[in-house]
Write a sequence for this structure.
């Protein structure tokens, strides 16, 4: 599903690599945490998968795409196979919950009758049935993140990339969001989540890829955040 082969990324404005000789394979349906301190390369890792950046050296494969070689006109098709969730939710503030989720379907040309059917289904999946007509500002942080997850998942992407999705949430709400990501993972969707949330990583016991100064220093099948547990 995802393969990085000896990937090094050096940004133009920087001298030291953001990622250095990183090789990681993620299979279909896996759940992977990418952890490490701020600046260790987690976001760069995710941006390479989306072709928001290209590697300076090495190869990036996502599903069957050689990402760096993909012609520009095919990038939208790559991105349609990937759902994204961020720390700051990134909802459209002037649209309702329903419209935020529907928008993801409208931009890829889905017909109105499909949208009317599919949006309520996914809002139910994330536990927001009954909140369709709310504006994002009327929702709690956890609810806003659920809308963002619904929007990311409504196209049934092959994978979900989450960059610090619990970074703005309290611990209980964070646990609820993790249950939801687990539920999405159980549908067969590959989930890659960048985080520094130690308690979440420790409670989930999933695969952990740890970065430090752009290098993979650990890749454990059922990991915890630190070493001293
Ligand atoms: P993390 O997500 O773990 O905080 P990043 O991937 O954002 O790490 O950053 C890795 C390194 O690359 C950091 O040193 C950061 O300052 C640098 N960096 C990230 N994005 C850019 C960019 N667009 N241009 C230059 N340097 C960047
Ligand atoms: P996060 O770690 O929350 O994902 P970012 O990836 O946006 O945040 O940024 C991580 C680090 O990379 C920060 O230190 C930021 O200042 C630096 N950075 C991001 N974009 C650039 C850029 N265009 N040029 C230089 N540094 C950048």
């Amino acid at each position: 599903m995802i393969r990085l082969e000896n990937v090094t990324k050096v940004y133009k404005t920087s001298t030291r690599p953001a990622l250095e000789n990183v090789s990681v394979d993620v299979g279909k349906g896996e759940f992977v945490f990418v952890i490490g301190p701020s600046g260790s390369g987690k976001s760069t890792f995710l941006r390479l998968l989306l072709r928001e950046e290209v590697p300076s050296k090495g190869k990036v494969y996502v599903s069957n795409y050689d990402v760096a070689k993909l012609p520009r006109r095919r990038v939208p098709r790559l991105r349609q196979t990937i759902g994204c969730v961020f720390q700051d939710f990134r909802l459209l503030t002037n649209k309702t919950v329903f419209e935020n989720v529907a928008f993801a379907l409208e931009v890829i040309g889905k017909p109105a009758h499909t949208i009317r059917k599919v949006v309520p289904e996914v809002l139910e999946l994330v536990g927001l049935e009954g909140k369709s007509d709310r504006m994002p500002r009327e929702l709690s942080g956890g609810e806003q993140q659920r809308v963002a997850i619904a929007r990311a998942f409504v196209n049934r992407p092959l994978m979900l990339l989450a960059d610090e999705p619990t970074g703005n949430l309290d611990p209980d709400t964070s646990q609820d969001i993790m249950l939801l990501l687990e539920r999405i993972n159980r549908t067969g969707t590959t989930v890659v989540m960048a985080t520094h949330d130690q308690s979440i990583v420790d409670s989930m016991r999933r695969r952990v890829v740890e970065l430090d100064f752009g290098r993979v220093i650990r890749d454990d099948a059922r990991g915890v955040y630190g070493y001293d547990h």
User: Anything to note?
Assistant: The longest helix spans residues 171-186. The first strand starts at residue 2 and ends at 9. The CA atoms of residues 65 and 74 lie 10 Å apart.
